[in-house]
Amino acid sequence: MLDTPDGAHIACRHVRGAAPGVLFCGGFRSDMTGTKAVTLEDWATTRGAAFTRFDYHGHGASDGAFSDGTIGRWLEDALLVLDRVTEGPVVVVGSSMGAWIATLLALARPARVAGLVLIAPALDFTETLIWERLPDEDRAILMRDGVWLRRSDYSDEPDEITWRLIEEGRDHLLLDAPIAFPRPVRILQGTADETVPWRHAVRTMEALDSSDVTLTLVKNGDHRLSDPANLERILQATDEVVRLVAHSSPRSPSR
């Protein structure tokens, strides 16, 4: 458990190993016990690489209420883990919302983040995938009550979309300007994803100014990409980026 500046605790699991390490950032309302996180840890352990996973504020085993969370708060959690737990160059794997957090991490710590693997990347989702799609009546409810309950495809409990989440998210939008990250990026996206449309992944690829960005579109792939074939694609993409970082200049980013 990591202590945050406001006295809360963030749950984290770290496995020591060789650099570059891998840091996994989960999605909206997910936790670090998910299939992708555990599969990546098993892969990293077998390979002898360092691996870290954690729960954001209000997620999993961490303190706090989910409804108090914002993109900025969850970014602070990720920065805390990156700064206090990991060492050396790190490849950040982000799933859905975690891909947005991962990209923000790369911009905040350019000397530490050496590569990205983005799975169904939901960059700017609070604005482009929620607010811009909301009917006027639901926008009115959200602004009046401060919260709007959205049916979840992954839980019996609805998603609590707060006005604070929408409003604060605007401080972290990335897709309307070039994303200044010059290192390797691998993006995986399902064409049947109903949560993050595949064209959103294309927009993400186009915004990244790295010359080494690859987008893999998986025909009929869903949002989770957690079946065995897609887990293998995720591992292959991560392995590729880790190898590129490992074979780069000895002046690779350090802690």
Summarize the structure.
By secondary structure, the chain is of the alpha/beta class. The protein contains 8 helices and 11 strands.
pLDDT < 50 runs, ≥5 residues: 251-255
> What is the tally of beta strands?
11
Strand residue percentage: 15-25%
CATH topology: Rossmann fold
Distance from first to last alpha carbon: 21 Å
Task: Tell me what the structure shows.
- 36% of the residues lie in helices and 22% in strands.
- The chain is an alpha/beta fold and 255 residues long.
- The protein has one domain (2-123, 177-245): Rossmann fold.
- The strands form three sheets. The protein has a seven-stranded mixed sheet, with helices on both faces.
- Strand 8 and strand 9 (159-162) form a beta hairpin.
- Helix 2 packs across helix 3.
- The protein is globular.
- The two termini are 21 Å apart.
- 42% of the residues are buried.
Question: Key features?
Answer:
disordered C terminus; 8 helices; alpha/beta; two-stranded antiparallel sheet; 255 residues; Rossmann fold; seven-stranded mixed β-sheet; 11 strands; globular
